Every structure is written in structure tokens, then in C-alpha cells.
């Protein structure tokens, strides 16, 4: 069970959290102006990273807040957790600014 | 008499209480502190099991948790019976009842040994080869026979009477293993402010020190030093000692599973004690001091009772005070077996000969053996043994072959060196590296915050074991943030046994490897492994699966390295290139009880009940599970079946008034300046113009355009919505709302609160609903003009504040009375009493389903399955097409979602009105079409409608709305059912009753 550092509550066991998929995929401001392909890419296309991956977590059975975590998918080491709206560190790979 | 093989334990003169137990129905006496294995050996019993495949007689190979043969069933009653325990770990107590397994009719005369004579037909992969054909024979013949013959223990016939608990724990330093390295680590780590947990799988802590009578530490005998160290640790408040506790699994981020056996060793455990505790430990730093496991040697007939690991014999003599044999042949590839031979000799056994694989032998232990008159043969092997139920002799020859000498014996000790226990390290994803010197894998680079010390790191000399343990303990405490207050020194006096080792088969004659066992528990021989490589299996992962070597409950603790050795030699590829099988938890078999903990019976899953539940129960309601909710399903009266009860409930509701507990509906209070804007974005509907006091049916999509949930929403004020969701979807909907609010639109001023548990919801439906309610309500005008369909008012009912909805899920005049949950039962009963003159009838979810289906109202999850759009479900009217955006809007115009031939919701009426279709049945156009028949849809809801006096159904059908009047076919096992496509609203299509 991972130990996840909620930016609001501190370290808590994984059982308190729900994974929310890849981070930094902003919902388009005007979806109707997008082509079908662009919209499909937003809906379905996700990275399958081997290595550092930025992903959303929700402290579902805690404070309820969403936040981001940078997790190495090969080791499960979580390098950093940070609040929504904050950017991942530059050294981290795979971020989509 | 406590057994003819009893000797003085170590150098300690002591008195141990007698303990009485039975094995296979026979009474024996052992001494306190014995394992079942040591007590049986004390009584001269070595035959304890039959092998898995060939039913060969088997005895104790080891003295610990690596034991492959001595599996026993323990327990006097079925409710306290545990199969497949290791006799080497079971502690005896007065009244213990144990039995052997996998034998019939008895251990001594087992019918299955016939397998032995058919062994030519049971080679590697025999399951795959032999039982392929004919297919029908598998179920009737092969499987039952294999199951009976190739058995482990029998599962108990009654539920487990014991209790199991689970505990979370945190510590700065967790030390796994309380041998010399673990003890040193604990002494050092706890000489700081760090909290330390030291666990060990055995009853007594001390590990190999307890079996060592030649070494001394700080001037004390090894075992005495261990006990003194434990006394010191026990006094430290920051240390927790846990014996009988196996660290069975490593999970990410230094999360280690420990299984503590609390009562298994007790004759009369206190009733408040659980049998086992599952400890889930989060440790800042971990010290692995798991030790090493001795390797057997692979030679012909190396599996007879009385052939055991040299170190195990040493443990039996020195620690338990039993000598496993009186005439001993030792077969070894390393010095440690000499040390064992000397200890057995000191206990009175005769050492016939030490047979050493190594070309030349020398050093302290060899010299000492020779000095004591023990014959040593170097460059030699044991190439065969005799004896059926117990070994009788060994055939000894030069390693290269030649004439064999037969030496009588009742015990053969073997040692191929030691394999470090890297299981937990490997589970932690640490990288292993192969040591040519040790012929074993040792820990390489760590991934988690842990370090290996002592024998599990490949260190075998006591001095370096203790030194590495001490260093590891200090390092762990410091890294956890608690630098130790000092260092202590350890005066170790011990003669090294070196690190020589051997893997693979010692046999040069391949034919003889037919009975040279690699894996005792799964009955795999060197020949089987060789055969697998000849048949093209080169990776050890494939050899393992094909031969099943290493796949028994011992997970190859004794066999994996020897199997690797055989493969490596056969295909002439270096061991690391052949690979290594993956180590997986649990380290040793762990009970289901431990994992289940308290989650059994009523506590297996939480149950949610409404405040009206007990009333329904008293009325004799039948309940159904909806998620974790218990919902009243129907209310049968005397003599009624479900069909009759539902027909009566439907009729009563349509003709007068029915009352229904809708409290399980999900409820979310959405409040804030931007609440309407938020609703606009989350739901397909338009909310801006909805006036306070009005209700609207809302549809929520996922971003991919498919229906996610629905529910009636009340606007309580300009900045406040009372949202209802489906019973099962409440948490999902709230979570999705939070997601958008927190991550996409944090600028919106909106607050979301789950109020599901706060409101009881009483639905009152039927033409007389208003008449029943009116006298109970204060401050609300219920008349049709003042309170039309789809409106909400606040006031009081029976003096209790209420949000009163005028809403209908039945097609009748209806109200849903929301009251604070604490008043739910009282208000329900008041309404029920007021309804008596009108024959008020309680109804359950089944009647609710029928009534809504008659009206063509969908149920999310029944009419929808995650691929249904609002238009498919006939809800196009609920989509605010003028809205610029809402979740899922863009998807609704994707090409696949606007195709004409999408499945659409329609009604279906069977040609024979008495026939009720089966939900889920497939719909076709032409049932005579050759298989596969193209399917054009399926039945989503189907009921007997008492109102319409016929069957009704809803279905999703390709292009369904353009098929009105068409006759479709539903092929069923006993014939094709014909049905006509009709509109989905089958009752009161104009809604006159609703608006009454
Ligand atoms: Zn939190």
C-alpha cells in the first residue's frame, strides 16, 4: 500500500485515496470548436509512461481534495505531491504543460 | 518416557515439562518447547508424509519454515482444524491432535505408492501431455483421480471458530529476523530514540544462535548471549519484540505484512485472544536479517525418511535435545556439515563417514573431525540409498564413479551450502546479483529504504554477521532521524565454516537422476528438469511451470537453486542467464483468516438501512440489496407469492394510494453564488430559468456523451439546489462533481454536500395521495393550482420541517416527503395511519419498477449500460441544445453518436400477452438466419403488468424508433418469442393522471 502525502493532510495510506488518472490534461475551454479528432484525443489519449508520471489523486476518504502526484511507475516511488494549479518540477518527464 | 532419542539439550541442564499429544491417532509424549517434529523425532518417528505425485514415504528434511515434506493437519475439531501446517513449526501442547496427509489407507501402507511403478508415465509436463485426450475423460476420470491422489490436506468441513484481528503499526525501524544479525541490529538501533519492532517467525528468538554450542559472544555461549540480548531489549521502552511473527510480504513504501500466531501453541487460550493478528507495519527503515536456508544435495534416492539437512540435525540436537539418528552418514559440499557431525557425535551418535564432494578438504572443522576419529572421504559422493520407510544404508563412491561401498545408517545428513533468504528484499523490488562463490543470489541495489544484514546478505561467519547487523541497525536508526547514542563492541569467538557451496545434481549418470529429487514437495527430479530443457524450455520461468519445480507451498525454498544448477549445466549457460523465478508474498503460507480479519459474517460488508427499515421488517417485507443498501422489495401478505404481492401493490397504487420508502436516493445539496452555472455545466438541462420552488428531471453525462446518472432536482433558492441521484450512483456523482469543481472550474463559488443520510424520503403515490397528505401538512397549499406537478415547497408535516416534492415515478399524482432522517419513521407511520381510510398500501422496489416501466421511465444501469446517449434513451428533450457547453455535449455530435441505426429505447409487446420476456435476452430479425445470427438489440426491462393485464417490456433496438409496429424475434432455448415494437410509454401517454 502506497504512502501518499496529501498536500492538505500529510502522509496517509493509499486506502484513503482514489486515483484520478493522468494529470495536466485541461478540459478545452470551448469543446464545440474542436474537431472530432482533437476532441477524441482529449477524451481518450493518455500516456503510458514507464518512469515518472504525473497523476491525479483524490483524498476521497479524507479531506476530499484533488491534487497531483509525480510517481515513478517502475518503482512506485512518489517524488512529490502538489496542489492543483501548481506545475510539476521541470526535471520531471512526461508533463504536458 | 519422553522418547528414546532424547538427549541433553546443549550444555544446559534443565527440566522441561512433559507434554502429551497424538499423531495419526497414536499417543506420544514430548517436552515443553518441542515442535511436533522434534517431539516425533524424540520418539523415533521419521515417516510423516507421502509425496505429492509418487506417494513415496517422506520424513523431516529441515527444522524450520522451509520444510517441504512434513505437512500435517492439526486440530481436534473441524472448526479448529488447519491443514498443511509444518510439523517443524507446530509447537506441541497438551491435547494437540495432529495427522499426516496425502495417504490412504495409512501412512505406512499407502495405496498411492503404485504411482512409483508408473513413474515412467509421469514425466515432466505429464499434466499437459497425458490428460489431453479424450476431452470428456478429463472431468469424469482424470480430474477426480488426480485430485484424490495428488493431494495436500483436506479443507476443514466447518466454519472457522476462531477470531482474527488486524492491526496497523508504525515504527522507525523494523527488523525482520532475530538471529545474530537481527539481535545486533536491534541492540544498536534501539540505542537511540527510534521506535523499533523486532519480529521473528519462531517461538523463541535467537535464530541460529540457539543451535550453536561452539561459538561464544562476549564470553557467553551463543544461546545464552542471545537470551541476555533479548532481556536487555525487553527492558527498553522503545522496542517491541514479536516472536511467532512472520514477515510474509513486502508492499510498496516500506509497508510490511506480519502475521502473528497468538494462540496456536496454547492448550487453553483465553477466550478474548484472537488466533492470529495481521500487522500492517509502516516502517521508516527496515533491516532484513532473514538468515539463510541450507541447500539439499541432489542424489539418487535422496528423499527417504532419515535424510535431512545437516544444520537441521544440529538444531534438533542442540536446541531441542533430540538426536535424529544414531548411525550417521554425512554428505556435504561445505564445512558446516562437519560442525553438525561433531555436535551429533557429542550427543552420542556414531558418525560412520563424512562424504565430501570437494576434491580436497582442509581447515579447522575437517581437522577437528579427523582428530575425533571421524572418517572423511573427499572427492566422493553418496550415489544411492536404501530403505523404504526409513533410510538403511548409503552407497558411496568416488565422485567420478567406480565401485560403491555400502554403509549402514539410520540418518544421512546433507549440505550443499546456504541460500540467503532474499525473498523480502526481492519483493521490495531490490535487484539481486549472483555470487559465483556462494552459488546463490545475494541482495544488490535497494529500491526501498531497507538494508540486508547477516546471512541473508551472504555473510556466514558469525563475526561478520554480527558486525553487519550492528552496522545495519545503526544505519537504519540514523536514516530514520535518530542517530544512536553510541556503538558497542562484540567479542565473537567462532570458527568460520567458510562459504563453499554446490548447486545442481551430483550425479554423473543421467539415468540415475530419475530418482534424484530436486523439489521434494512437488516431486520433481533432476531428470524431469533435464527433460524440460531437452524439450526446449530454457528460461527457468518456463522450466518451473513445465515441471512444477518450486511451485509447491514452500515456493522452492530448498529447490530453486538446485533446479537452476541442473538447467545451467545441461544447456551450458551461466546461472544468472538462466534467470531466477520471481519471489512473491507470502513468504510462508498464511491463513485466509488472517487476511479476512474481522471481515466475515455481518462484518464482511457494511449494510445501510433507512430509518423506515425496521417498520418494513415488522410488516414482513422482503428485502433486496441495492449497492450496500437493504431496500424493501415487496410486502407479501399471508399466502402471497411475489407475483401476487406486486400485482396487488400496483393495483392499490394506481387505484387509491401507495407508500414507498425512497430514502436511499442519493442527495446532494449544491449551494453558492454560481450554483446554477455549475448545474448548467454538469447536467444536460438548462437551469438558469428554473424558478425557486420548481423541480426538473436532470440528466448527467460523462464527458464521452453517455448517460451517467439522472434524478429530480429542486431549486430551493436562487443559490441552492436539492439534487437527487440514483441510489447506487450517489458517491460517483458527487465525486465527479467535485472533480470538475476542484480541477476545472475552481473559480466557481459552489459548495457540494452529501445529504443522502440527512433526509428520509417518503413517496406517496396514487389518486388519493393528496387527500392523505393534506391534513398532516402545515403551511403548504397542496392544491393542483398552488402546487403543480414538478414543484417543491417547504413547510411542516406532523410538525416536522419538510421539503415536499410534488413528483411522480409511477405516473400517478404523487408526492415525495423529505423530512430529517431522525423523524422518518414517525412521519411514515403518521402518513400510514392517515392513509388507512384509503386502503394505503406499502410497496417495494419491484412494484416501483413495474409502475415506472409502464410509464417508460428509465432506470440508469438497467436501460443504460454506459453506451447509451440521452437520444438513445428517448431523453433528447432533456438536452439543453442552446447551451454553449456542458459535460458530454461535444461528444454528442461525434459521428458514432449520431448514427441513425443506434440502439434506441422502445416498448415491446409480446404476441402472446401471457409470455414475459427475459431481461437481457437478445433480439433478432430473422431467427432462421444461420449462426451467428445478427443481433439488433436486447431486452432491458420486462414485467407482468397487472394494470394492463399483460406482459410489458422495454428494449434497446437498432433504429428502434423507426421500427414501430414491426414484429421482432427473441430466440430462447425453448422456442422463438415474437414481439411487436411499440412506444416506450405504455400507460397514460398523455400524463393526465400525473397532473391531476
Ligand atoms: Zn487530504
UniProtKB/TrEMBL annotation, chain A:
Pfam families: SoxD. InterPro entries: SoxD, SoxD_sf. One of its GO terms (molecular function) is sarcosine oxidase activity. GO terms for biological process: tetrahydrofolate metabolic process. It comes from the Bacteria. This is Sarcosine oxidase subunit delta. It comes from Tardiphaga robiniae.
